[in-house]
User: Fold these one by one.
Assistant:
Number 1:
Amino acid sequence: MVVPLISPSILSADFARLGEEVRAIDVAGADWIHVDVMDGHFVPNITIGPGVVKALRPHTAKPLDVHLMISPVDAFLEAFAQAGADIITIHPEAGPHAHRTVQAIKALGKQAGISLNPATPAKMLDYLIDDIDLVLVMSVNPGFGGQSFITSQLRKIEAIRKMIDKTGRPIHLEVDGGVDVDTARRCVDAGADVLVAGTATFRGGPDHYAANIAALKGTV
Ligand code: DX5
Ligand code: ZN
């Protein structure tokens, strides 16, 4: 059985103690740290920018998994790369030239991800998949933590797993939104290998992070 990597979304952390929260999830077994960047334009919420990513960088050696929900996006790639992002994921709808944006991320020496909204078909990846390192399937509409998992996305995860296997390249398949112990299993069964979890990681406070992450991995 595949044990997924867990990328806790710091959107559900205590923003007044963000450095401490990142250290706590690192020690508790997080594999990556998921950073949700929202602009109040591409999505109906505003979160954080490259300055916060830079401030968090010294608090963990784990990969910073930066999910950009901003439009336009190209002008900000360099700032996030310099701030210490390891993986930069964009939405193809956020700009007219997704392929160019992927090339720009790679030219900055970072791993490139493509995120698909719930209504966006897997087909969107046809001419991008050979150039990317990660696919992020949104199992909620982007903008907020704490929403319910949209089960139709399981079919999309299955389809993308087949596409990835066909490439023979090590492309991560990550799922984001409404992931809890139950939906985590279903995502892994459908072919996901990385799970984002905000609410399900931070529930109960720091004393619970390790148990929450282990439960999501299915190792307890
Ligand atoms: C939604 C974000 C998610 C979100 C996940 O736009 O991309 O990363 O924070 O939160 P939960 O796990 O609470 O659904
Ligand atoms: Zn996210």
Number 2:
Amino acid sequence: MEPVLSIQNISKSYGSVQALKNVSFDVPAGSVFGVLGPNGSGKTTMLGIILDILIADGGTYSWFGGMQKDAARKQIGSLLETPNFYHYMSAIDNLEITAAIRQAGLEDRERVLQLVGLTERKTSKFQTYSLGMKQRLAIGAALLGRPKVLVLDEPTNGLDPAGIAEIRSLIKTLNKEGITIIIASHLLDEIEKVCTHVAILKKGTLLLDGPVDDVLRSEDQLEVRAADMQELQRILQSMDGITKIRLADNTLQLACAPGIEPEHVNSFCSGKGIVLSHLLLRKKSLESKFMELTS
Ligand code: ATP
């Protein structure tokens, strides 16, 4: 399927600071795409460029297989910073102001309030909302006009764990509705939970990109123990698909080829007469992978 967005060799400098260096990646249709990187890695600059707010020094990007820019822009909802809603006005009235700009009717306002879970509080004043509700209303405003793509910059910034969980679940719901979502964030663990694809930036350079599962694959580690550790190590050395064995703290740490699951190791050992007293799959988080890459 054609990517929703294709970015080729984008570069951007601010004076002597090169914020982006020849960055290229594709955003697949239907994905939740995380643009990840530490502070100053160029994420906001990249979002600014693809939304036509900033002009790149070099490179190209195309939306929806080369759709004309104005037409493409109508298919994109974005939230780069918290919009200024009126504190003394209700959600529905605040949305009316945004809707006038987006040419969206009452039905659409009711639809987005439903999507972001604010229907019951739609007549409450904005100032009575929690931070999480305010952020959901902002996402609701970005959804007016039924965009096919939603671009969010650090959507969980400043929220408490409950607020973060609400936004996470909202992103998943919107994605199920068929909306492709591009999120810039430095919160790796958080993004790992919602993204299907990821591009990792470091000082303006793309380190890697692809499906989250591929990017993280082969990094998982299995831990095993048995009464006779020497015998366990000896027999595991003969098992196909174990690529590395390391003994630490009286535990064997195994690196396994793709497709080797804990149950395979368990049944292999039991077939050789060894009963495992400990079997644990340690999934390497995007966070530790990211720290390794960027530090
Ligand atoms: P953060 O998460 O801190 O917002 P980021 O990954 O979004 O970081 P950018 O904001 O795109 O990164 O910044 C990339 C680099 O460009 C940084 O070194 C930043 O200081 C610099 N930069 C960004 N905007 C400007 C500007 N208007 N003028 C000068 N330098 C800028």
